[in-house]
Design brief:
Blueprint lengths: L4 E5 L3 H13 L3 E5 L2 H10 L6 E5 L7 H11 L4 E6 L5 H8 L4 E4 L4 H13 L3 H4 L2
Parallel strand pairs: 1-2, 1-3, 3-4, 4-5
């Protein structure tokens, strides 16, 4: 089985570079996108859909929750982890937490991110993560 893959979406280039470095060091295959629209294009052209979408909640244009709706229409089994510096806003509570998605508040450590991702995959039966 190939390494687990992650599509990271954030409008901040520095965040994308940091996530690319952290996740690559953890052995994940990482793709990045600076907008939800770019993420949709990448998702549709990938030879294999990512195992995990790591996306910011609040972005210009299409929000993270809207992006998840679009990508899960294509791949309902897509795992999702939201990240946000605004973890107490109505949008985050209503569209992320109340919908049962996992959220990692910014700023976070590499260790916290690794543990959150491991938790997502360890709580899922193995056959669902093998694609």
């Amino acid at each position: 089985m190939s390494a687990l893959s992650v599509l990271v979406v954030d409008d901040e280039a520095d965040v994308l570079r940091l996530m690319q470095r952290i996740l690559s060091e953890e052995g994940y295959e990482v793709s990045t996108a600076r907008s939800a629209e770019a993420a949709i294009q990448a998702f549709e052209t990938m030879p294999r859909h990512p195992d995990l979408l790591l996306t910011d909640v609040v972005m210009p244009g299409m929000s993270g929750p809207m992006l998840v709706d679009r990508l899960r229409a294509i791949d309902p089994a897509l795992k999702v982890l939201f990240m946000s510096g605004y973890d107490e806003t109505h949008v985050v509570r209503h569209y992320v937490v109340e919908q049962g998605f996992r959220l990692i508040p910014k700023p976070f450590t590499a260790k916290a991110l690794r543990q959150m991702i491991e938790g997502i995959f360890s709580s899922v039966p193995q056959q669902e993560t093998a694609r």
